[in-house]
From TrEMBL:
Highest taxon in the source lineage: Bacteria
Name of the protein: Glycosyltransferase family 8 protein
The species this protein was found in: Mucilaginibacter rubeus
SUPFAM superfamilies in the record: Nucleotide-diphospho-sugar transferases
InterPro entries: Nucleotide-diphossugar_trans
Taxonomic classification: Bacteria, Pseudomonadati, Bacteroidota, Sphingobacteriia, Sphingobacteriales
Length: 290
């Protein structure tokens, strides 16, 4: 069975990010489990439609390429993912060929903890005047974006999925050409793709370690490091630390972030930096990348 692991890195910034922090560990994973690594650096669609929205949508066109028919299984991975090969296993193992293998965003790492992570994340955003859509339930995630999914209890995290050109090309194209994200709230193709796959009963749930989202784990277990430098408390704390130790609190905070990321890395197979890619350089400092 021929397998490919594919990502999209369009633009110098994203190519550099991928090459610096991802390429080596991705290639190691591909070598371990017999994948071909494909990094797309040019847009698959250059139409007016494509120009009106994020390149993230173009992951839905990977099965429409002539070369995709050469593969039985294709694994899509966003370019802000670090793979932990020490604890890795083949992400396609056990996924039926006619299903799309995904992680449930609202069960990461459990439903209760995910809800807590959202509550803490929203609290941090409120303090810093960050605009967002409140989606404490899976149903509201859809309805807030104009999608009739109030009755749904799950949301796929579309940054990583297992699919097949033979079975999923048509539904991916349907989402690409029939939906938009003009309702706001970000997440690009994710709401529509999640809705269509769940309604069609095409989802096979993967363990959350295959899409371990850093921002949610941090907000659930390490909320004190969210926007820490912007708080009045942090400024006071910094002065105290400097008087007691002669060191800046930023140094201590940086070490805490590195320790936090190392802990998350150890729990992950695919460590996803969605909405927090600025933390990726800390992985080098933690000395955990090949």
């Amino acid at each position: 069975m021929r397998k490919a692991l594919i990502t999209l890195a369009i633009g110098k910034k994203f190519e550099q990010l991928f090459n610096e922090y991802c390429r080596a560990n991705w290639q190691q994973y591909c070598d371990l489990f017999d994948f071909e690594l494909i990094v797309i650096t040019n847009a698959l669609d250059k139409s007016e439609l494509a120009n009106t929205r994020s390149p993230s949508w173009q992951k839905l066109l990977i099965l429409s390429q002539p070369w995709s028919l050469e593969y039985d299984r294709i694994v899509w991975v966003d370019s802000d993912v670090v793979i932990n090969c020490e604890y890795a296993s083949d992400i396609t193992q056990g996924v039926p060929l006619d299903k799309v293998g995904c992680v449930d965003q609202y069960s990461m790492p459990t439903p209760d903890i995910f809800k807590l992570s959202l509550e803490r994340l929203y609290k941090s955003w409120d303090k810093n005047n960050v605009k967002y859509l409140s989606n404490l339930s899976a149903g509201s995630y859809y309805s807030n974006r104009g999608i009739p999914g109030d009755d749904l209890n799950h949301v796929i995290q579309a940054g990583i999925f297992v699919c097949s050109p033979k079975f999923h090309k048509e539904i991916f194209e349907k989402v690409y050409y029939q939906y938009d994200d003009k309702s706001g709230g970000g997440n690009y193709e994710n709401p529509a793709l999640s809705y269509e796959l769940l309604r069609a009963n095409l989802v096979f749930w993967l363990p959350c370690r295959f899409n371990f989202c850093v921002i949610n784990i941090i907000s659930a277990f390490y909320p004190h490091i969210l926007h820490e430098r912007k708080s009045v408390f942090f400024e006071f704390y910094s002065r105290v630390i400097r008087k007691l130790t002669g060191k800046h609190a930023e140094q201590k905070a940086s070490k805490e972030k590195i320790d936090c990321l190392k802990n998350i890395y150890d729990l992950s197979i695919f460590m996803h930096f969605a909405s927090c890619s600025e933390l990726m350089p800390k992985m080098k400092e933690a000395l955990i990348l090949p």
